[in-house]
């Protein structure tokens, strides 16, 4: 009797195995969908919704690139499980793994935290409460600053157009992205001003135009005018503009005022529309040129393009310019950010306690 029952159990098991492997693929997939969490989106849907959520809030393309990268890393960490099935325990494990095993910096860990916070709140519409994770405390480090002699040594090693870009970064305190994104109409010689549009945080600001750069900028504008005329003869589709602006002003892409102050050497083919458009010079090319110039000048400091902006703020501070004025020129939202430059110059504060009556 026991042998008979054992044979019956084995027979039923084999029948179940054979039944599974003979079920059509479509029926197995339908069964998997039925057992998955209700309303679970695919990862493709998540990335599309993430793109739309970032666009609605007018965040920069770099923000989208960063958030999408962290969502992709989370997807790999949870082994491609459905997005809506991800628990807070898994999120905590992911963030803890970044800090413990990968030992990322505090800023990187906080960037990942913010990306996942955005994902859960605005894409998955779920509460985001990783209680087991402590936000990393950001350590504000003293920026690298070049002396005036070192700045001159670096600038003398650069060739056109990188020398003019570097002089603008240092002379106006521009971020690299702001310098290469300047357009012809942003330079106002009458008012001696340079207008920065859509800086960090989407803010605009006006900056004084250095008098020593007037001749070089006018020569650069003539080069841009010549290139623009050649592009028009070749029938190019214009420069790359923000999508909303391009729809509102359809002829702006070919207007001289909207041309880049530092255009790229070659046209860029946009596959989705099949058009050749002009883009500005790539940031990587400028970074490489400045890095090479630093080595040629035999400067041991780890200087980059952003170091020129740091040097701008530090040199103004050492010249006794008001800290609030420097904050406005740099486009900082908080004075705390600007105050870091007080550590780069020698303090002029008197330590000896004296009465104001004796200071006359």
Number of helices: 15
Question: How much beta, percentage-wise?
Answer: 5-15%
Low-confidence stretches: 12-40
Task: Compute the average pLDDT.
Answer: 83
Strand order of the largest sheet: 1-2-3
Q: What are the secondary-structure elements, in order, as H or E?
A: HHHHHHHHHEEEHHEEHHHH
**How does the major sheet shape up?**
3 strands, antiparallel
Proportion of residues in helical segments? 40-55%
* Cα-to-Cα separation, first versus last residue: 116 Å
Q: What is the number of beta strands? A: 5
Shape, per Cα inertia axes: globular
Computed CA radius of gyration, to the nearest angstrom: 29 Å
The assigned structural class equals mainly alpha
Structural notes for this entry:
The structure is a single chain. This protein is mainly alpha-helical and 360 residues long. It contains 15 helices and five strands. The protein has helices at residues 2-22, 25-35, 43-56, 61-77, 88-100, 106-123, 148-156, 162-172, 176-180, 214-234, 243-248, 283-296, 305-318, 323-330, 335-339; strands at residues 187-188, 193-196, 205-208, 263-270, 275-280. The strands form two sheets. A three-stranded antiparallel beta sheet has the order 1-2-3, with no helix packed on it. A two-stranded antiparallel ribbon has the order 4-5. Strand 4 and strand 5 (275-280) form a beta hairpin. Helix 5 (88-100) runs antiparallel to helix 6, helix 7 (148-156) packs across helix 12 (283-296) and helix 8 (162-172) runs parallel beside helix 13. The longest helix is centred in the first third of the chain and has 21 residues, at 2-22. The chain is globular and about 60 Å long. The relative contact order is 0.08. Mean pLDDT is 83; it is low at 12-40.
């Amino acid at each position: 009797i026991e042998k008979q029952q054992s044979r019956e159990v084995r027979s039923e098991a084999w029948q179940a195995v054979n039944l599974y492997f003979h079920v059509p693929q479509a029926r197995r997939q339908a069964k998997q969908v039925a057992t998955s969490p209700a309303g679970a989106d695919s990862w493709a849907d998540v990335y599309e919704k993430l793109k739309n959520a970032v666009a609605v809030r007018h965040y920069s393309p770099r923000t989208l690139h960063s958030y999408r990268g962290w969502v992709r890393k989370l997807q790999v960490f949870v082994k491609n499980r459905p997005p809506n099935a991800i628990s807070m325990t898994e999120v905590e494990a992911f963030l803890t793994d970044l800090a413990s095993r990968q030992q990322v910096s505090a800023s990187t860990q906080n960037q990942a935290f913010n990306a996942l916070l955005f994902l859960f709140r605005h894409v998955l519409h779920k509460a985001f409460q990783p209680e087991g994770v402590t936000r990393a405390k950001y350590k504000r480090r003293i920026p690298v600053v070049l002396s005036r002699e070192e700045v001159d040594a670096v600038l003398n090693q650069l060739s056109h157009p990188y020398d003019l870009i570097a002089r603008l970064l240092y002379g106006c305190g521009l971020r690299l992205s702001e310098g290469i994104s300047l357009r012809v109409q942003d330079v106002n010689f009458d008012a001696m001003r340079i207008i920065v549009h859509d800086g960090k945080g989407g803010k605009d600001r006006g900056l004084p135009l250095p008098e020593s750069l007037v001749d070089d900028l006018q020569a650069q504008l003539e080069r841009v005018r010549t290139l623009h005329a050649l592009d028009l003869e070749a029938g190019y589709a214009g420069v790359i503009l923000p999508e909303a602006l391009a729809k509102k002003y359809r002829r702006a892409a070919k207007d001289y005022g909207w041309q880049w102050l530092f255009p790229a050497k070659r046209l860029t083919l946009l596959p989705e529309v099949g058009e050749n458009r002009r883009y500005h010079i790539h940031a990587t090319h400028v970074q490489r040129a400045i890095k090479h110039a630093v080595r040629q000048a035999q400067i041991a400091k780890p200087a980059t393009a952003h170091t020129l902006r740091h040097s701008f703020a530090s040199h103004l501070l050492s010249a006794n310019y008001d800290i609030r004025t420097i904050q406005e020129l740099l486009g900082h939202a908080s004075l705390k950010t600007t105050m870091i430059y007080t550590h780069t110059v020698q303090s002029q504060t008197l330590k000896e306690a004296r009465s104001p009556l004796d200071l006359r």
